[in-house]
Design brief:
five-stranded mixed sheet; single chain; alpha/beta; binds adenosine-5'-diphosphate; binds magnesium ion; 16 strands; flat
């Protein structure tokens, strides 16, 4: 079983079956007793709608394990959803953001073991994304991956199956949502929840000029009258609102390219930058990155699932190699930088 433990979504891949679970990384728990009420899609519906004693939270928010116990509960829930009782203790590969510290890696590992895994391997997110997008990462060719998730963005240059240069910025799709919420409050005096902000972003959000520009009716609570109000929001306004988090992501991309050794940079200039993660699905993102870096840019066929698919393929590869003998296992770890 392979798990893409994302800040926004957790995906579970099972060999021979593909992606069997894809749910938001949300846990609703009772603040007094600590008991978990709901996990995943059910818990997400509770965000912003819970009574004072229940909190619906995203335990991974910025790509790190902010709350160990809650993360463990969440993993346990997702594993239980797919595990057959006879193979109650599966071997697992978990995808971790490349910016995580050793302590955080250990926390992911321990949460997985505590949740019932027999053995846990970690794979770095950019490597998994590249494998999932069908890129031959083991070649001595520079490949660049940009993965924008909910709470983090990861940029990495890969060659010979390992990460040569990487950056991780604690900004992603959520920061775009927050920027939209902030804009609505300050300019339109309208209060909206995080899910409404996300719907606006997905509905009419963009990072380059659109033809035609569009509008959307947005409902919220007027801050001065306190009454439910609807306004007409223009796509140009949304673009201006998300400009700041988007420019932070662009800066991290430029920094990564600046640190890239020249030979690898020329490979990237020829083959292009791979975009993965839901955050890169905002309109015009590929065009913007290409314009800002002068490099060709292409999107993974399925930006939201390629990390899980890549992790799953890595696990199948690992199973194949371990059944072929112990000596090969170490080589794979070196190949795909698994901890
Ligand atoms: P993570 O790996 O951190 O869990 P994902 O790769 O699942 O993150 O991406 C989740 C983010 O992608 C969310 O912020 C979500 O709003 C955003 N997203 C998903 N679809 C779109 C879309 N069509 N346009 C813009 N953003 C999107
Ligand atoms: Mg991700």
């Amino acid at each position: 079983m392979a798990i893409d433990l994302g800040t926004a979504n957790t995906l579970v891949y099972v060999g021979g079956r593909g992606i069997v679970v894809s749910e938001p990384s949300v846990v609703a728990s009772d603040l007094d007793t600590g008991l978990v009420h709901a996990v995943g899609a059910e818990a997400e519906r509770m965000i912003g709608r819970t009574p004072a004693t229940i909190a619906a939270t995203r335990p991974l928010r910025h790509g790190v394990i902010a709350d160990f116990d809650v993360t463990e509960e969440m993993l346990r829930y997702f594993m239980r959803k797919v595990i057959d009782r006879r193979i109650a203790h599966p071997r697992m590969i978990v995808c971790a953001p490349s910016g995580v510290t050793e302590v955080e890696k250990r926390a992911v590992e321990e949460a997985s073991l505590a949740a019932g895994a027999r053995r846990v391997h970690l794979i770095e997110e950019p490597i998994a994304a590249a494998i999932g997008a069908g890129i031959a990462i083991e070649e001595p060719i520079g490949r660049m991956v940009v993965d924008v998730g909910g709470g983090t963005s990861e940029m990495a240059v890969i060659s010979l199956g390992g990460i040569v240069v990487s950056r991780s910025a604690r900004v992603g799709g959520y920061e775009m949502d927050e920027a939209i919420t902030h804009y609505l409050r300050t300019v339109h005096h309208l209060a909206v929840g995080s899910q409404t902000a996300e719907r606006i972003k997905i509905g009419i959000g963009s990072v380059t000029r659109q033809d035609p520009e569009v509008t959307m009716e947005v409902r919220g609570r007027h801050l001065l009258t306190g009454l439910p109000t609807a306004i007409e929001l223009h796509s140009e306004e949304v673009r201006a609102a998300v400009a700041s988090p988007v420019s932070e992501i662009l800066q991290a991309i430029r920094d990564t390219l600046e640190e890239t050794p020249p030979e690898l940079a020329s490979d990237i200039a020829r083959d292009g930058i791979l975009l993965a993660g839901g955050g890169t699905m905002i309109r015009g993102f590929a065009e913007l990155v290409s314009g800002e870096t002068g490099m060709p840019v292409f999107s993974a066929e399925s930006p939201l699932t390629c990390v899980a698919t890549g992790s799953g393929r890595a696990l199948e590869h690992l199973d194949m190699l371990t059944s072929a003998g112990r000596g090969r296992r170490t080589r794979l770890a070196a190949d795909w930088r698994m901890a």
